[in-house]
Amino acid sequence: MGFALSRLRMLWFGRKPCRILMVGLDNAGKTTVLYKLKLGEVITTIPTIGFNLETVEYRNVSFTVWDVGGQQRIRALWKYYFRDTEALIFVVDSADQERLEEARQEIHTLTDDLELRDAVMLVFANKQDMPNALSAAEITRALELHSIKGREVTDNRNNC
């Protein structure tokens, strides 16, 4: 985890806003996560058709966050957002066990893309408050994150 934090710190200080791409399956909660980061509160959202773009300030660091829709037909367009991405957040619905295999396939497709090879990656296990939500460790196993080559995997539980 120290290595990932060091890389993020290098990206953040003394530079333009860090470009973050946030993706995941539809209904994973990407837009809710974005606006919780931006506004500090949960707001009502609608499915994202296209993208949302916001600048988020955190401890004097600016992040430009691209929240891209996760519907099946939109996923083919994700690649057009890869350029200059410094960090990738993949949001997973921890309570939707039926779609974990689909999420696993998408994560592995993303990590195989050369344009994202240098991007720091965070898998965000969302909806932990829902009944039957899998733990971060269970999500890590189900998505086979340890099998991704060239990526350090840590289980960091933080109650924001």
Order of helices and strands: HEHEEHEHEH
State the end-to-end distance: 18 Å
Known CATH architecture:
3-Layer(aba) Sandwich
CATH C-level: Alpha Beta
Q: Strand count, sense and closure of the main sheet? A: 5 strands, mixed
Broad shape: globular
Strand content: 15-25%
Mean pLDDT: 89
CATH topology: the name is Rossmann fold
Specify the number of helices: 5
Helix content: 25-40%
For the largest beta sheet, what order do the strands appear in spatially?
Answer: 2-3-1-4-5
Give the radius of gyration. 15 Å
Binding site for Mg(2+): 31, 48
Binding site for GTP: 24-31, 70, 126-129
Keywords: GTP-binding, Magnesium, Metal-binding, Nucleotide-binding
Organism: Ancylostoma ceylanicum
SSE map:
Blueprint lengths: L1 H11 L5 E7 L5 H10 L11 E8 L2 E8 L3 H4 L11 E7 L6 H13 L7 E7 L9 H7 L18
Parallel strand pairs: 1-3, 1-4, 4-5
Antiparallel strand pairs: 2-3
Question: Key terms for this structure?
Answer:
160 residues; globular; 28% helix; alpha/beta; GTPase activity; Rossmann fold; metal-binding
Protein described:
By secondary structure, the chain is an alpha/beta fold. The chain has a single domain (2-147), classed as P-loop containing nucleotide triphosphate hydrolases (Rossmann fold), CATH 3.40.50.300. The chain is 28% helix and 23% strand. The chain contains five helices and five strands, in the order H-E-H-E-E-H-E-H-E-H. The chain has helices spanning 2-12, 30-39, 72-75, 100-112, 136-142, and strands at 18-24, 51-58, 61-68, 87-93, 120-126. It has a five-stranded mixed beta sheet. Strand 4 (87-93), helix 4 (100-112) and strand 5 (120-126) form a beta-alpha-beta unit. The protein is globular and about 35 Å long. The mean pLDDT is 89. Keywords: GTP-binding, Magnesium, Metal-binding, Nucleotide-binding. GTP binds at residues 24-31, 70, 126-129. InterPro entries: P-loop_NTPase (IPR027417), Small_GTP-bd (IPR005225), Small_GTPase_ARF (IPR024156), Small_GTPase_ARF/SAR (IPR006689).
